[in-house]
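User: Hey, my collaborator sent me this sequence without any context and asked if I could get a structure. I don't really work with proteins. Can you help?
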Amino acid sequence: MTCPECGSEIEEGLLLCSNCGAELKLIPDFDPAIESSISDGLSDLEFDDLDIVDMDKLDDDNDAYEDEYYDDDEYYDDEYEDDVKEYYHDERSDYEEEEELDDFDEEYDGDYIDDDDDFYDEDALHQLGLAIKESRFRLLFLLAFLLLIGLGIWGVSKLSKRYYMENSQSYQTQLAKEAAAEGDFTTAIEHMERALSIDSDDTSLKFTLVDYYFSNDEDDKALLMLWEIIYSKDINAQLAYRKIIDYYSERDDYAMIETILSDCDDQAIVSQFIEYTAQAPVFSEEPGVYENVLWLKLSAATAGNIYYTLDGTDPTTDSELYTTPLYLELGIYNVKAIFVNNYGIVSDMTDGRYTIDIRKPDPPVIQPEGGEFTEPELITVTAQKYCRIYYTTDGTEPTNESQEYLSPVPMPIGLSHMMFVAYSQEGIPGDISECDFELTLESEIDAQIFIDAIKQYDINQGKTIDLEGHLPGTINRYSYSVNAAIKFEDSIYYIVTEYVTDLNENSMRTGAYFMGDINTGYMYKGLRSEEDGSFMLGDYIEPEMYAVPEPVVFIIEE
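Assistant: No problem. I've predicted the 3D structure and written it out in structure-token form, which is a compact way to encode the shape of the chain:
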């Protein structure tokens, strides 16, 4: 064996070099692979599994190597042969030392080493203990290092997971929804608020948080969140308005809804909820001075009622209810109106002053002007252009709902008081004209004779069933009256008007007329123009048609 320091030969059995004094190491320095192998084998001081190098095989390999590479004499000299021998000697010494170590592992009992060539050496044993101890410490350090790495990885993983949980909007949203599903809205609110702190622009999450607030009786926070959405001009502002209005609608606080909408400058949103508003009524005509009568219409944007006054007083819900257009004729009108929607919200008041300044029509002119007459004359009436004339013959004041004058009127029989009025094109009435007529006809034929003849005529025609004029199958009856007379050429005729009368004696003209010659007794059907109301003679009625049938006499023979 050679000294690893100076290369001198060391006598067999010595552990120190006699030349340089270097200590001979029985255990070579370990590289990582060898250390790992030794550590596994020495963990329980069991050395039985160590492999012993087959030196014979190594010699054979060396001989083969020499035969292959050093076969040529020109490359072989004594000096190189010595170097090769020395190298293989050293290698063999190392393997012998390993073999000795294996023998030591097998035979060591704690007190001595039993070997023919070796003897007990306390220093070698000390070196071996140090090597074993050092390998154990390294293993412990390695295990500790690996444990620290594992703990570090675990800690980083936990921190990463916690960071993800704290900073993931989707994860926080999921936790919020899970808590809400279980009815734990307090926890749901905490997670949703955390989600919004990560991304405050997610409007859908804001609406979800609003629902959680309402469910958790945190109405103030919910309303505040909705107003934040509105003030941010978000495209979902209309939905925010809807939730706010629904909130106050459920509490019947319509006044607050009207206030909210009146402050909203987005007409698209206002129109969406217009049923909650109470906008002032709109007048169909602008206030001002007019030279004609007005039909003033009042309208509102939504369902509800309009109340108005015409005398300038402020209207209330106790004022006149608007149902039809207001008719403003000659005069001054200070119109005021309010609107009350179906939720009881009262609008602002609308008012307008209307001055209707038009001339009243002059009184109609009547011809003849009245008096006593033995023969009938047609009564004619004239008025200003574009005026319409209405009249009565019973002494009541005429209106635009009375009989309209369209053509000369037959003079009434007997004493009559006739009144006429003219209405302007704007519907303004003038003063009334009136006069008295007394018509006395000299005739031997009484008007009642014609009435009785007409009743018999109806029976003969099957129109009635008796002289009282009853219609078949009904309680109504026909009745007749003679109110006026008219003259055609040289003959004077009674005008007989037909009525239908009910059980309560309410009568209505049927539009049928008869005419009877007061001198001859001849009877005709009367005709009246639908255009101007003028009368004319119709078909002649044969006397047989209204004659009383002769009674049938039955003779009984004895």
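In plain terms: The longest strand covers residues 477-488. You can pass these tokens on to your collaborator as they are.
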